[in-house]
Structures are given as C-alpha cells and as structure tokens.
C-alpha cells in the first residue's frame, strides 16, 4: 500500500471529490481516479459509493480513513523527527485559540524559528473543541486550548492560567445587554454562559463572532458584554473605553496549555514551543 495512494484517498474525502482533490494535490483527475481504483483493487473493497458525479464514503472507506490518517501522521512525524536531529527541518502544524494566539504565540513561534530555523511552521486558529478534534484527526501536531482536557487520546500540558474578567463599555449595564461570545466550541463561551446564569444577567440573547477584535470592538461601542482574559483586554486598542470587572474564582481562572496525541512520536520542536510559552508568562 503506497503512501501516495493514502494521501490521494484522504484528499478525496476531505475535499469532497476527485476534481477538488486533484487541485489540492496539483495533479490531473485521471491520476486521482487511477490511484483510488488501484487502492480498491489492492484492498479488495469498495471505498466510495458513486452517485452520479458525487462520491459517498462507503463503510470500508470509513475504516480506511482512520488508519490512513494515522499512517500518514506517523510517516510525517517520523520524517520530521529524523530531519530534526540534523538539519532541523520539516513541518510543524500548530493550532491555537484566538486569545492565546494574541497573547503568547508570536514570541513562542519566534523562539521555535530561532531554535529550528529549517522548520516550516503552519498555524491556524479555531475554538478549543475544534482544535481537539483536529489533533485527534491527525490534522495538527499540537494545539493550545483552554483546559482541563480529559481525553483518552490526548495529552494535556498546562502552561499558563488565564484570568477571565467581565468586560463592558463605560456607561452600560451588562444586566440589560446581550452577551457577545465566540462561536460554539469555545471554552470561554461555556464559562460566559454559566456566569450569565449565575450573575442574574437577564438578557438571554447572545451575539456570536469568530474573532477577538470583533468581540471587543462591539463591546466597546456598547452593543453587549463579554468574558475575556484580562491580559487580552489590557492589550486591546479599545481598553480605554472598557470597564473590567473581576469574577469569582470558579469562573475566573482557566488552565490553558498544549494538547498532543499520546501516541505521537516525540518532536523536539514541541518542547521548544511549550518552553517558549512558559517563558512569555
């Protein structure tokens, strides 16, 4: 079973079809089709159901997808680990919450770049829940999320403890305003909703945003209130017009750290990255 065939199979699944996969892999459609057909012949199983121009993953395909992701992850990590011993080259895929990226990631990534100059860094932001799924699915090598994280496949290293504070615009009352929060899957969202109920804020409405500055910008003009790490608020250009209030202990302190697969091969760059984060605190 060739790795190129597994990469092609994974691309077809994730991109939703032959044409999109061929574009991602920078090859012609016939190459993609031939690789999938050879893979099916080798395995003696149908991987997709063909429906007109569409393709639906067959039960055998769903089983293969999980193993393919693990095999490709192991191949990539093995290659990277071997290269890191000598030339410090390879690829490191890092996920992060928006707030963590704003506070800690730039300095930490700078330290990784200095220690591993040939390492290619790829970074994306998402909610904690989405990042955990991406690590489990072998789409990220590590991710920085709000904890605690308890999952059989994931190892969680606590690196910092963020203090959440209630944030509103000067001259407004959170009791009469909607909550402004990140989308579903954000750990801060869960805390904010719990605090909303516990504090007696009567407004059940909530506005969702995908970016840090979008939330603080709307809070600053009096559209609502939010919970946000204190340091993020203090560094915001909107800080002068915001009112920051301390929360009770059970809502305020959020352990934050790095998650990675327990089964993943060790990478020295991850140690460099986590050490650099601790150094920024």
Layout of SSEs?
Elements: H1 3-15, H2 18-25, H3 29-43, E1 48-51, E2 54-57, H4 59-86, E3 89-96, H5 98-103, H6 105-115, E4 118-125, H7 128-136, E5 142-146, E6 154-169, E7 179-182, H8 187-199, E8 206-209, H9 212-220, E9 226-229, H10 230-235, E10 242-246, H11 249-252, E11 253-261, H12 268-280
Parallel strand pairs: 3-4, 3-5, 7-8
Antiparallel strand pairs: 1-2, 5-11, 6-9, 6-10, 6-11
Number of domains: 3
* N- and C-termini, Cα separation: 47 Å
CATH C-level label of the largest domain: Alpha Beta
Shape: globular
CATH superfamily descriptor of the largest domain: Periplasmic binding protein-like II
Q: Helix/strand-derived class? A: alpha/beta
Based on the coordinates given, report the CATH architecture of the largest domain. 3-Layer(aba) Sandwich
Quote the CATH topology of the largest domain: D-Maltodextrin-Binding Protein, domain 2
Largest β sheet strand count, sense and barrel closure: 7 strands, mixed
Total count of strands: 11
The H-and-E topology, N to C, reads as HHHEEHEHHEHEEEHEHEHEHEH
Q: Give the averaged pLDDT, no decimals.
A: 87
Q: What proportion of the residues form beta strands (DSSP E)?
A: 25-35%
Low-confidence stretches: none
Instruction: List the total number of helices.
Output: 12
InterPro entries: LysR_HTH_N, LysR_subst-bd, WH-like_DNA-bd_sf, WH_DNA-bd_sf
Organism: Parazoarcus communis
Protein name: Transcriptional regulator
Family: Belongs to the LysR transcriptional regulatory family.
């Amino acid at each position: 079973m060739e790795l190129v065939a597994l990469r092609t199979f994974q691309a077809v699944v994730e991109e939703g079809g032959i044409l999109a996969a061929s574009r991602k892999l920078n090859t012609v459609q016939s190459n993609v089709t031939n690789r999938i057909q050879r893979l099916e012949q080798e395995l003696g199983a149908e991987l997709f159901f063909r429906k007109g121009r569409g393709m639906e993953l067959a039960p055998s395909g769903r089983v293969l997808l999980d193993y393919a992701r693990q095999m490709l992850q192991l191949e990539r990590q093995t290659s990277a680990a071997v290269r890191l011993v000598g030339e410090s080259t390879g690829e490191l895929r890092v996920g992060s919450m928006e707030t963590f990226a704003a506070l800690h990631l730039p300095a930490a990534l700078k330290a990784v770049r200095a220690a591993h100059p040939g390492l290619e860094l790829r970074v994306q932001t998402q909610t904690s829940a989405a990042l955990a799924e991406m690590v489990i699915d072998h789409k990220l090598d590590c991710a920085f999320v709000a904890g605690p994280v308890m999952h059989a496949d994931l190892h969680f290293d606590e690196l910092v403890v963020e203090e959440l504070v209630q944030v509103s615009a000067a001259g407004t009352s959170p009791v009469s305003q909607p909550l402004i929060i990140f989308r579903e899957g954000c750990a801060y969202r869960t805390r904010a909703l719990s605090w909303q109920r516990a504090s007696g804020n009567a407004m059940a409405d909530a506005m969702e945003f995908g970016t840090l500055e979008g939330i603080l910008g709307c809070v600053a003009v009096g559209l609502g209130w939010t919970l946000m790490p204190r340091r993020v608020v203090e560094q915001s250009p909107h800080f002068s017009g915001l009112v920051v209030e301390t929360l009770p202990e059970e809502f305020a302190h959020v352990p934050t750290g790095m998650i990675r697969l327990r089964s993943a091969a060790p990478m020295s760059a991850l140690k460099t990255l986590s050490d650099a984060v601790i150094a920024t605190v």
